[in-house]
Design a protein that fits this description.
binds magnesium ion; Undecaprenyl pyrophosphate synthetase; binds 3-methylbut-3-enyl trihydrogen diphosphate; about 230 residues; alpha/beta; about 15% strand
Length: about 230
């Protein structure tokens, strides 16, 4: 039980391939990812992880076929409807990182607001859903805020930018897991991941369960974090 990461990030990837391998449409893979997400969240809760950020829809995912984008929008809205109450009962605070731009249907935004409002005082764990999220967009948005607030160049430092990210109250992720055997970040938490430990697994997201999270954390516990310094 030593050194449980405070904040874990997960790039939930491989839904399409999971479905294709079964001769199903890609969207079936997204649907099957719900069980993986819920089981992983419960696993994180059981270990005492304080924050779990999951990548649900990227600023680049708009490039997908319109039917798949539409499915993902409806699916994420439905997921909140189906799961927010049980997560609330467990003391989970649901938050979102990402842009609220015109492309996100209003019905999805209002569900997001409802889930955030329902759970805002919960303290056990934060489930932060990265939705219409891009790491570059997040940094751009922080810079825009600096300019809008009239912050002078001499006052711009890492702290000033960090404070203007989507969720400055969350610590940087200690561990980031990516499923489906891809070795890239795909624009996830660029600023926050500077010193995260990375774990890659071949498991496709719909097959991922809390045991896979535990295995990733066991790998994390073998790592020696130095943050640019030398071993103590
Ligand atoms: C991840 O699975 C889910 C989202 C990006 C929304 P994919 O849909 O990317 O699945 P693959 O990578 O094509 O298998
Ligand atoms: C990253 O997966 C985004 C999410 C998991 C939501 P992608 O499937 O979009 O990433 P690429 O395109 O393979 O880099
Ligand atoms: Mg993918």
């Amino acid at each position: 039980m030593r050194s449980i990461p405070h904040h874990v990030g997960v790039v939930m990837d491989g839904n399409g391939r999971w479905a294709t391998r079964r001769g199903l449409p890609r969207t079936e893979g997204h649907g099957a990812g719900e069980k993986a997400l819920v089981d992983t969240a419960y696993g994180a809760l059981a270990l005492g992880v304080r924050a779990l950020t999951v990548y649900a829809f990227s600023t680049e995912n708009w490039r997908r076929p319109v039917d798949e984008v539409r499915y993902l929008m409806n699916f994420n809205r439905g997921l909140l409807e189906r799961r927010q109450h049980e997560l609330h009962t467990e003391g989970v605070r649901i938050t979102f990182s990402g842009r609220r731009d015109w492309r996100v249907p209003r019905g999805v935004l209002s569900r997001m607001d409802e889930a955030a409002e329902l759970t805002r005082h919960n303290k056990v764990m934060t489930l932060n859903i990265a939705f219409n999220y891009g790491g570059r967009a997040e940094i751009v948005d922080a810079v825009k805020r600096l300019i809008e607030e009239g912050v002078s160049a001499t006052k711009v430092d890492e702290k000033a930018i960090r404070e203007r990210l989507y969720h400055p109250e969350l610590p940087d992720p200690d561990l980031v897991v990516r499923t489906s055997g891809e070795f890239r970040t795909s624009n996830f938490l660029l600023w926050e991941m500077a010193y995260s430990e990375l774990v890659f697994t071949d498991v496709l997201w719909p097959d991922f369960r809390r045991e896979d999270l535990y295995a990733a954390i066991a790998q994390y516990q073998q790592r020696e974090r130095r943050f640019g310094g030398v071993d103590s």
